[in-house]
Amino acid sequence: MNVSTPNPTWHFTLGSLFPGVLLCAVIALSASFVSEHYGGPQLLYALLIGLAFHFLSRDSKIGVGIDFCSKTLLRTGVALMGLRITLAQVGALGWSTGALVTLGVATTIAMGLLLAVWFGRPNEEGLLSGCSVAICGASAALAVASVLPQTPKNERFTLMTVIGVTLMSTLAMVVYPLVAARIGLPSAQAGVFFGATIHDVAQVVAAGMMLSGGGDTAAATSATIVKLYRVMLLVPVVLLVSVLINRSALPTDKSPHVKAPALVPWFLLAFVGCMLLASFSFVPVPVSETAGAGSRALLVMSIAAAGVKTSFEDLFKLGWTPVLMLLIESLWIAAFAGTGLVWFGIARV
Predict the structure, then answer these.
(1) How far apart are CA 115 and CA 50, in angstroms?
(2) Which letter, b or e, does each residue of 45-57 get, where b requires 16 or more Cβ atoms within 10 Å of its Cβ?
(3) By CB distance 3.0 to 4.6 Å, which of 57, 68, 109, 322 could disulfide with 160?
(4) pTM for the full model?
């Protein structure tokens, strides 16, 4: 008599993922603790701590879980970001602010590609740096990298981009409010500038709060709405990059070990679905807030995984060019947004 036994496949899968996922979770918790108690960017801490544990990436028992965090958890975190954006928020921008932000994103990405040509770097590097500065910093860099050819070179450049853009975002968070207060920029206009130029969402909110006092929350409100609109632009940008890559419009590594990305990544469709759910109030506020916190946690874990997979030696091989590209792109988007504020005469969002 044959006795059927449960399929142990899912047990094996969970067991193989657990060590690597646990490592990334511990690193993410450590980064969060340091950020909350001593200040500083959470994502950068996760990346640096992950780099310190690179030696563990040689262990085959951990590698599977690390890859899961750097890919699947990353895509899930990006998809959940859609719950923070509604169509009503986008409509509240107005045509002039929307045009300013959209053109700022487009021209900054174009600047990234142009800099890649000038410095003799691959087009993929121009896309990574340009999109990270133009849209939402480390999150955008990881999202764009997920649809590029998965090569060691692209992974190293992605990590360097995350480090550089996080540092510059933190610097902008401190400097921009001081400059805005010094020149007497109205709160709402300052908020639009912060939202249109600072890279990471957390730093945008912090910069807006610095100018929010005495009941005047215009800076924080306008900065958050403008920034969320930039985050929404991640969907068409990543989709366009995916289409271009699949059409071989950009030079890619022809190695048989390189896996071609999907034409329409599933996490972009999930992002749009989440945004529609939030727009039509199908998601309760507590659930949306929990999903937002979960999205951040997943992104921190994916950054930690990316750090574990990369060594300092590999990063140093890239030289000074990535940092210079990020600096020029950051200056460009700041100059473009500042000029646009004067040109359009944007006063509020």
Answers:
(1) 29
(2) bbbbbbbebbebb
(3) 322
(4) 0.75
CB contact set of 175 (below 8 Å; sequence gap of 6+): none
Is position 3 within any domain? Answer: no
| pLDDT, tens digit (0-9, with 9 covering 90-100), for 4-42 | 445 555 444 667 888 899 999 999 999 999 988 887 778
User: Is residue 163 assigned to a domain?
Assistant: yes
Within-domain flag for 13: no
Full residue range of the structural domain in which residue 257 is found: 18-344
- Rounded to the nearest 10 degrees, what angle do helices 201-210 and 218-232 cross at? 160
Any domain includes 174: yes
Rounded Cα–Cα distance for residues 202 and 242 (Å): 27
Tally of domains within the chain: 1
Residue among 148, 343, 182, 176 nearest 262 (CA):
148
DSSP bridge pairs for 213: 216
pLDDT in tens, 151-194: 888 888 888 888 888 888 878 888 898 898 888 888 888 989 99
N residues, the chain: 349
